[in-house]
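Weekly modeling sync, notes
Attendees: S.R. (lead), two postdocs, one rotation student

Agenda item 3: backlog of single-chain predictions. S.R. asked that every request posted to the team notebook include the full sequence so nobody has to chase files. The rotation student volunteered to paste the first one in as an example of the format we agreed on. Action items at the bottom.

Example entry:
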Amino acid sequence: MRDEEKDQRVRPGLTRLALGALSGALAGFAALAVAELVAAAVRPQSSPVVAVGGASIDATPAPVKDWAVRHFGTDDKLVLQLGILAVLAVLSLVLGVLAVRFLRVGTAGVLLFGAVGAAAAVSRPDSSSLTDALPSVVGAVAGALLLYVLVVRLTAVRRLPASAQELTTEEAGYGLSASAGWDRRGFVFAAASAAAASAVVGAVGRSLNASRGQDAVASRGKVVLPDPGSPAQPVPKRAALRVAGISPFVTPNEDFYRVDTALVVPKVDATAWRLRIHGKGVARPGSYSFDHLLRRELIERDITLTCVSNEVGGPYVGNARWIGVRLADLLAECGVKPPSRGGRADQLVSRSVDGMTIGSPVEDVMDGRDAMLALGMNGEPLPFEHGFPVRMVVPGLYGFVSACKWIEDIELTTFDAYDPYWVKRGWARKAPVRSASRIDTPKPFARPKAGTVMVAGVAWAQHRGIDKVEVRIDDGPWQQAHLAAEDTRDTWRQWSLPWQATTGGHTLTVRATDRTGSPQTDERTRTIPDGASGWHSVVVTVD
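Predicted structure, as returned to the notebook:
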């Protein structure tokens, strides 16, 4: 047989393999779409992508997780989900090609991935029923059936003309038959129908999943925050400097950082929400509704929060006005005493509706600081992204040991008896916020004009307060910056320094000293296990 004739024979085999890959992609798409629809009937968190994503987050080593937060910020969850979808797409293509040669193996592969999704769903901390496996199982069955139907169309027997029946061994290896073709019309119809149906099913599933939170949205819309019994003092007029580029003293809710492990933001109906307080040393276990907390005396405070994943000079710090119930009062009602007064528990473990556990020192939350169960943020009910209906706020502690969002359970125990989520992954049990400072302006690699350039930023040392901020130009002497008025020792302070800039490259460095007299260390440390340290510097070129 001539080479040209041989090429014409081989090409249909390659086409069939390509269509097999397409079949696999369509089967994967259908599986995810059906799973999304079933998840709408079960709960959004049972979706295979969400379940596998959550399991992946839990299994990721702390340094890798910290790297993801550092490089992707609040988009880290989106990147993870896109990565999972990309892996599933590749595997679907491979299974489709495999199914052309080994149909049972290909369909079994689809079912196997469904089993992985089901196992991930039922093993999540917030899973309470085997029904969480249904989306992955039903989706996998639908995907396997579609793959079977499409591949059968590719391998359906159809008599060919006698002139087309001579094939070489190599051609036969591509799945061709000397006496059979494939059902083109049947395949195109089945593939097109499957794609359209999957798109519709997926869209309906996503719409239903979104609508499941409508009761929660409605309950938040009805919340009217009462006037606090202990209002925050007015922010001093000179607490906010009029310097272009500096962080605003109060961080707007939409700009407040968010670092957590929730791939799907929980939407909790405040009318059905309950908080349980129990455990070691709790003489009178308590259960509280949202309305009960609203009727209590509320405190209002300006408090700066910091994430332990914040690198030196990083963005994961923000200041807001919080309103809520003093946590120490609730604990005292339940008969809880701090260890310094003979209490049996030294750790408070808060649990979120999504299964997150956070451990806080009982001594710290009951030492008189304004630790609270926050109900509102900057004059409105908590946004869903920041923990509606209730979250914990403890001044002076990093979020991973204090700031439990979507809280529903508080258990008193000991540090020896229980390791919460982050401790199991190599982070510290106790983590007071380190003193830190940041240059907001000029930005790194900026090109200001020669002359007076305002260097400005923020510094924080929650629950100790900032006493002094100094700036150094290149290797010159430290110059004391102007400090804005202090609101409270639990909030950050703005600072500024007019610099007579000369042409050329320069390195600007900042350091802070807290109210205890301890200067910010220049020793650079990683965020793991208890927060980064070091001086923040920016390099600029003056024109």
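Discussion: group reviewed the output briefly. The two ends are 74 Å apart (CA to CA).
Action items: rotation student to repeat for the remaining queue; S.R. to check formatting next week.
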